[in-house]
Each structure stands twice: as structure tokens, then as C-alpha cells.
Amino acid sequence: MQHISLRILIEDVQVAINRQADNGISPKELHSYTKYNTWDTILSWINSIASSNPSLVSKQVIGNTFEGRPMTLLKLGKSSGTTKPSIFLDCGIHAREWISPAFCQWFVKEALETYGSDSQMTSLLDQMDVYVLPVINIDGYEYSHTTNRMWRKTRSKLSGSSCLGADPNRNFDAGWCTVGASSNPCSETFCGSTPESEIEVKHVADFIRKNKSSIKAYLTIHSYSQLLLFPYSYSYNLAADHSELMSVAQGASAALTSLYGTRYTSGPGASTIYLAAGGSDDWAYDLGVKYSYTFELRDTGYHGFLLPESQIKPTCEETMLAVKYIAAHVVFSQQCFSGCLIDLAQYSHLITSYFFDTVQDKG
Ligand SMILES: [Zn+2]
């Protein structure tokens, strides 16, 4: 009798510990915003968050990965009869950068929790839609969980090579494979056999092309280095919108730093880190998506890709401030039609002061 009751007690305690220790040990299938969830857990979360918030969230599969996993895109925003301007946010293009998908999940949570109470989030979702692709490179992400924690590329097979995968952020059709990329399939920065040879890249590019008249901003989340980058990376040439992009990036970085003091560097990819062709931000910008930014989240190399789960919450909190800052600028730019006399680059300083007033109001 005692033996039986002891077994039941252990099982109860174990479940209780799993649920309390949100950064500690818990069953893989239990979703947590402060843990690095597996793809299966993220997919169940996507399905459940969409079905429990039908007035603000819808989902669609934009295609399958090389290994057949569904690339599920969430659309956040208050329903309206017409097509709203939108922001496209993606995470997990590089498999081992686990903080990135964690941020996309955090963004969705924050959007749903603060819509109706936070004025910035409410006006964002009233006036625009935000497309969130929580993981682009799902096959690589899964492989980094099961087999090789440091995997970066996709998992596609190329005939004639024993090496698998290409670098999806060298596979977009933007100066493709000219600089900072390799044509060797065994390289970590293999550009692929052709532009968009990676099916995951093609699905994202097809979706953005199809919706390019509505998509006003493209945000892509990587780690690590604490950078906020914008075009160009395939060339040292400055983007036509350089001064506005720089001004918004500096405001967004300042907003991020205001929370925990985390320092970011802003600038064009080529001069800030290195020349690299085939990146998604350059491609989106050349397609006509003006506000195109690449985030490189924490840290600066101490933990690198292996950022401890205890840093998920502060990293996501500070990154939210930068993303909301950029979004506020995009919302404003949509209200400023062709007759608008305000220089948007100058205006971003006004948004900065408005933004910090708001942050202070919230304590
Ligand atoms: Zn990356």
C-alpha cells in the first residue's frame, strides 16, 4: 500500500516541478516563453494561439520545408474589410540562433496581451497587420535540437555533394553569391545552387512578392552581436533611404538600451560587419520594402549562440522596445501621404521623445 502511494506522490511532484521551473528542466512538449521550445512544441503553440484568438490572429501555411514541415505564418491585426498595410517579421533563418524563434513567440504573446491596454500596440494592430513567421529554417532548427547544436544551414540535398544544406541568408536574389558567400556546398555560407534554390527561401520570397503592395517593413531576427543592420550588405553603396533608415535604427537602439543598458550598434550591413550577398533584408529593400532591418540579438560572444534561457526574457523585453519603435515610425509613415511636408528622417527624433515619454509613463 505504501509502495503504491509513494509512486503517485513522485509523479505529482515531478509535474509540479516541471511547471514551476520555467528556465529549468521541463518536458519538451510543454511550451514556455522562457525556454527554447522544439519545433513540435512551437507548432502546437501556433495552432493553439491562433484558435484561441480568432479576432486578432489567423494562420496560413505558406509552403512546406525541404523535409516536409509546414511553414506556418501568423497574421496579427484587427480584422478589417480592406487590405491593411503590414509588417513582415521572421525568425529562425539560421538554425542555431535559438533566441530568434524565442523572440517571435514573445512578440506574439506581447501583442495579444497588450492589445487594448498599450496604446502603441493597439494602434499598430488597428492600423496594420503584422505577419510573424516564427521559424523559417524549420528543418535546420530541428536538426540543431536533435543532432548538431551548432547547425546553421538548411537541410537540402544537392546531387553530387555529400554536404547538406545552404545558407538561407545567402540564398536570396540580391547580388547573389557575388561577395561574402561561398559556392562550395560544404561551406557554412554556401549560397545555394541558384537564387531561391532553398525551398524555404522561395516560399518566403513568393509570399512577400505576392503581398508587396501591402508590406511596408521587413524585420528579420538573428543572433548574435547586438547590431541593428539595414541595407546594403552586398555593396558598400548607401541605400537611397539611408538617412531615414539610420535615424530610425538609432532611435530603436536607444529605446532598446533604455531598459537594461544593452548596447547596440546601428548601420548598413557591409560597413558595420562585413560584405555579404544574398541576404533577405537587401532583397526585400530592393523589392520596394523600405523599412528593412536585420536584428542581431544578444550577446556579443561570451555565450554566443548558446545564450542561457535565463536571458530569453530580458532579451525579448528590450528587443520589443526596438521593434515597437520601428513599427511606430512605419505607422506614422503610412499616415503621411504624398502631400506630407515632414521629412521622415527628421520626424524620427519626435517619435523618440514621444516613445521615451510613454516608457516613463509606464514606470
Ligand atoms: Zn544569423
Automatic annotation (TrEMBL):
Its cofactor is Zn(2+). The active site is at E296. Residues 35-330 form the Peptidase M14 domain. One of its GO terms (cellular component) is extracellular space. InterPro entries: CARBOXYPEPT_ZN_1, CARBOXYPEPT_ZN_2, Peptidase_M14. GO terms for molecular function: metallocarboxypeptidase activity; zinc ion binding. Keywords: Carboxypeptidase, Hydrolase, Metal-binding, Metalloprotease, Protease, Zinc. Belongs to the peptidase M14 family. This is Carboxypeptidase B1 (tissue). It comes from Oryzias sinensis (Chinese medaka).
